[in-house]
Amino acid sequence: MLAATGVGAGDLAGGAFAGMKLGVAVLWAVILGAAFKYVITEGLTRWQLATETTLLEGAALHLGRGALWGFLIYLLVWTFGVGASLISACGVATQALIPVFDDPVPGKIYFGIGHSLLGLALVWFGSYRSIERLLGVLVAVLFLVVVTAGVLIGGDLIAILKGAFVPQVPDAPEAVDWTMALMGGVGGTLTVICYGYWIRESGRSETEDLTKCRWDIGLSYCMMALFGIAVVILADGLKSDNKGVTLVMDLANHIGEQIGDGGRWLFLIGAWAAVFSSLVGVWQAVPYLFADFWHLFRNAQNKDSFEPYVVNTRGTVYRVYLCVLATVPMLGLAYDFQTVQKLNSVFGALVMPMLALALLILNGRRIWVGEAYRNRKISVFALLFVLVFFSCLGLMKFL
């Protein structure tokens, strides 16, 4: 679930645009972005297993109602952005795979709307286990196809290694924007919080489950990083017009020129699997966040009598937000694909310092999480690094 939801429009479109505009010099941003997401996800897992409350519940109880309202504002804006990003990405990927429209723009719109409604139906009528099995198949397809294509194409090994291990931001238009978008897009953004709800669904509630969760998280982010690296390599040297609406087709043709028509078709299938799996995962996961907020808004006033809340995925609040998520962001289809992807990834990256700060506070108190699960020196350093790095990157954007 974590890998399927994390690998999507941000990794495919963000990685392709970054590779096209900046080349392999920014591969380090993929690796660092995945590492940051691991630190955040591991931290919130530690909190949840130690306290039996989600990160959102912990913030509401210990950081005050201001944190809760700030989260709601961010969630609503982010919902529109990520929804529009995924719907348009599904439309672009499907139009590239099944080019039934002469003009790709209507293809993006109609296919995007169709995939959003299909995702809505799958989550509405399906169970957590059925969604998990479906996304497992899609993740296997997208990972094998895209990473294999990246390996076959290869490239300048010295440049790739330098780009992976020597941090630099190329001197190019919008270089900071696309570097931040790449880092924010890889591995998901606000959806990292949803891992806590998934482990509840899987019955993991004891502190002894932490080791198993760390393996989950580590494997997932390694897969996401490899996928992102492969996409950047594949897009290096690509030329694409029309504000990105033909991005997937142009990238597939670029691959076909180097490894043959079979590789082109395999990539198109992998690209579709990537964005559709992410859409279904997000449609299933994000309503948890709003349902949890709604419960906290109504019941978190009295800390002494507060009890952890298990979200009912058949409940009214969850399903109302699911419908909102699957329909309202369709308005974003009116905007060009490239702009939607960049704004979504950059805005999504802003959640990283907020989560890092929350985990520094919540997991830093022995009285709340216990000695065994509070932040160690390496965790404190990593979270501070996330906080400072994204703050500095944001300042670079406005200077």
List keywords for this structure.
75% helix; globular; mainly alpha; Amino acid/polyamine transporter I; 399 residues
What does this structure look like?
With 399 residues, this protein is mostly helical. The chain is built from 18 helices and no strands. It has helices spanning 2-6, 9-22, 27-51, 55-62, 65-97, 104-125, 128-153, 157-165, 175-185, 195-201, 210-235, 247-259, 261-299, 316-327, 337-349, 351-362, 366-369, 377-398. The longest helix is centred in the last third of the chain and has 39 residues, at 261-299. The protein starts with a helix and ends with a helix.
CATH topology: Amino acid/polyamine transporter I
Q: How many separate helices?
A: 18
Q: Assign a percent range to the helix content.
A: over 70%
**Overall pLDDT metric:** 83
Count of separate structural domains = 1
Number of strands: 0
Task: Choose one word for the global shape.
Answer: globular
Q: Cα-atom Rg, whole angstroms?
A: 20 Å
**CATH classification, class level:** Mainly Alpha
The SSE order reads HHHHHHHHHHHHHHHHHH
Low-confidence stretches: none
Largest sheet, in brief, is: none
Strand content: under 5%
Measured between the Cα atoms of the first and last residue, the distance is 38 Å
Going by CATH, what is the homologous superfamily?
Amino acid/polyamine transporter I
CATH architecture: Up-down Bundle
